[in-house]
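Is this the right way to post structure tokens for a design question? Let me know if I should format differently. Anyway, here goes:
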């Protein structure tokens, strides 16, 4: 791994563009070298998965001359891992981490519900399931996959929405190799590379000429027709001052400076008129000694501390120039900001986060890993389910090809005859390659030669085919019952045991997806208040996937204090993110409807049958289901009120058609 001669994150005050780009190139080289073995293994695995399974030298030797069978078992193993994740959908849940504030207008639990519902809607609008599943498929195939969180301009609106997007080619991502967290949240930098044609480059970056990367020993440099451009996420150091206020809040000093005048204006001195018992504005009259009190007192600073923090900035770079990034100035058309010294470098004068600055704690790139091995030098080798199955798959191809060569493609047996017997067939004899028989001269002193029979595959070769097939299952731990294929197991218990054995062995893929989804939830929870910071209506999804329109950050006047407050303030409170895995709500609902329907068939009590039917309808989506459920609920209430569980109830149920 190349050593960095100068680490920019040491708060070098005179960092310039050349130093910045030198470090970027060194970092990219360090990431490539650290991951080189895993990338080579992953590339070989993908070739095998794509049925390119014969070594090049053997392929050239056999091409057009001898058969080369490819019986590709490998996609089924990847599909098995991906299929399990599709069935057991991961759900991000948001929990309130603080107790309800007695003065809060919205309970903490409701704010957590809104936040969680908004995250679910972001997932739905982004089709995040496909992004995560694609990353998992890459992890199972080649050992690593990625997806990301980004923002996009809302349609016909001034604000932005959060979106989750897949990274199609995992080989375009380079992460800080010094990260230790399994979800890589502690990474300090990352690259996502795009290859552009020179015409595309000129359209995206007018007035710029592409420059190559320093080293031309791998794919990461510009060619005659194409140029590589990288999104370079980097944590830049930033010192900030935190103040703790007497009302319990902790703010950045710059934020305190921006609101303290407003808080000062909200202060109000009042006094109690002892004669009338009424509270009046202003100070008490001189000499009255009436009690005075300050309403809405301005909080004071009780503690102040300077802390080292960071800013996540995104630069677009090629080999020797910055093409885009955070810029100075109110209109963001100044020089690129490389050193963040104050809040004005992060936010524009109107309080908005500058373009190309991510307002969160973590670089928003989420990895999904396959299986991992750590070498004694600290290098991490990542591989998918395919890599260990490469040799058994090739052995199977070799053995099956040999079987075909020994049987189907073997020469047909030819009868032996004398020249006298062949007389009159001289024309056929001119082409010896098509001769359907062999000639011999009768020799009375010796018996005639024996007739050649069919050439069949050897027992040893057939055993080799079976051995290779078993080794494929052993290396992947995915057996026939898991692929819905016939197997030696005949009893239900044996089949279940074999399936569970394979699932436990490959559970690492599901666990790594859980870790990735937890990191995704943390990223969204961390930045949601930064992107959803204005008053607007948003669509949220509840736990039953039902839509609800909610107004967030709604400014209202508090009746008690007369001050303006925000309802459903997305910046209020602290929250914890968890992830659960299981069948989707739709699947659970179908199972529930089926179970309730089966239960209803065995019930004789009309009231119980009516209740079950109502619940079936409540969980149905066909037109009129909810209206019918309301009507049945009214009948149920009447039955309960009148105690009708006899003839009257039966007549009511008969009128509805019952559940049978």
């Amino acid at each position: 791994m190349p050593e960095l001669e100068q680490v920019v994150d040491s708060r070098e005050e005179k960092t310039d563009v050349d130093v910045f780009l030198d470090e970027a190139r060194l970092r990219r080289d360090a990431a490539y070298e650290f991951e080189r073995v895993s990338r080579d293994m992953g590339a070989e695995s993908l070739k095998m998965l794509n049925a390119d399974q014969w070594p090049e030298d053997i392929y050239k030797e056999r091409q057009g001359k001898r058969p080369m069978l490819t019986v590709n078992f490998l996609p089924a193993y990847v599909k098995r891992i991906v299929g399990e994740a599709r069935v057991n959908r991961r759900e991000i849940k948001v929990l309130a981490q603080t107790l309800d504030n007695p003065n809060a207008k919205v309970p903490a639990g409701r704010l957590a519900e809104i936040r969680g519902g908004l995250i679910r809607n972001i997932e739905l609008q982004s089709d995040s399931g496909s992004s995560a599943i694609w990353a998992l498929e890459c992890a199972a195939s080649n050992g690593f996959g990625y997806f990301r969180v980004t923002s996009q301009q809302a349609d016909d609106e001034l604000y932005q929405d959060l979106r989750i997007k897949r990274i199609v080619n995992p080989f375009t991502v380079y992460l800080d190799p010094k990260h230790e967290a399994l979800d890589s949240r502690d990474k300090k930098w990352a690259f996502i590379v795009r290859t552009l044609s020179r015409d595309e480059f000129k359209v995206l970056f007018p007035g710029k000429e592409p420059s190559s990367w320093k080293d031309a020993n791998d794919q990461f440099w510009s060619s005659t027709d194409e140029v590589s451009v990288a999104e370079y996420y980097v944590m830049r150091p930033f010192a900030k001052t935190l103040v703790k206020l007497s009302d319990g809040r902790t703010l950045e000093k710059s934020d305190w400076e921006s609101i303290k005048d407003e808080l000062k204006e909200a202060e109000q001195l009042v006094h109690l008129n002892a004669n009338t018992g009424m509270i009046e504005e202003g100070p008490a009259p001189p000499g009255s000694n009436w009690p005075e009190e300050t309403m809405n007192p301005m909080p004071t600073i009780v503690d102040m501390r300077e802390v080292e923090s960071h800013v996540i900035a995104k630069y677009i770079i090629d080999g020797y120039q910055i093409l885009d990034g955070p810029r100075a100035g109110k209109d963001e058309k100044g020089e690129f900001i490389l050193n963040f010294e104050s809040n004005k470098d992060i936010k524009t004068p109107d309080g908005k986060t500058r373009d190309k600055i991510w307002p969160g704690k973590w670089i928003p790139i989420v990895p999904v890993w396959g299986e991992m091995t750590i070498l004694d030098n600290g290098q991490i080798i990542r591989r998918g389910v395919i890599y260990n199955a490469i040799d058994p798959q090739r052995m199977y191809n070799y053995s099956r090809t040999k079987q075909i060569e020994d049987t189907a493609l073997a020469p047909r047996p030819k009868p032996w005859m004398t020249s006298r017997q062949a007389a009159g067939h001289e024309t056929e004899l001119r082409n010896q390659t098509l001769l359907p028989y062999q000639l011999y001269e009768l020799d009375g002193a010796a018996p005639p030669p024996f007739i050649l029979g069919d050439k069949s595959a050897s027992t040893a070769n057939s055993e080799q085919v079976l051995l290779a097939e078993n080794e494929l299952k052993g290396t992947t731990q995915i057996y026939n019952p898991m692929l819905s294929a016939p197997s030696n197991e005949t009893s239900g218990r044996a089949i279940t045991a074999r399936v569970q054995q394979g699932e436990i062995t490959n559970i690492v893929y599901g666990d790594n997806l859980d870790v990735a989804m937890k990191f995704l939830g943390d990223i969204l929870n961390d930045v949601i208040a930064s992107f959803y910071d204005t008053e607007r209506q948003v669509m949220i999804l509840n736990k039953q996937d039902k839509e609800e329109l909610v107004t967030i950050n709604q400014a209202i006047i508090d009746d008690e204090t007369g001050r303006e407050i925000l309802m459903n303030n997305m910046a209020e409170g602290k929250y914890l993110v968890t992830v659960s895995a299981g069948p989707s709500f739709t699947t659970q609902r179908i199972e529930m409807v089926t179970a309730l329907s089966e239960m209803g068939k065995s019930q004789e009590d009309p009231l119980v049958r009516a209740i079950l039917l109502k619940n079936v309808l409540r969980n149905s989506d066909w037109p009129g289901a909810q209206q019918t459920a309301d009507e049945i609920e009214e009948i149920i209430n009447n039955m309960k009120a009148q105690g009708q569980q006899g003839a009257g109830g039966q007549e009511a149920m008969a009128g509805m058609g019952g559940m049978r």
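Format looks fine. Someone answered above. Worth noting: The CA atoms of residues 143 and 384 lie 4 Å apart. The first helix runs from residue 17 to 49.
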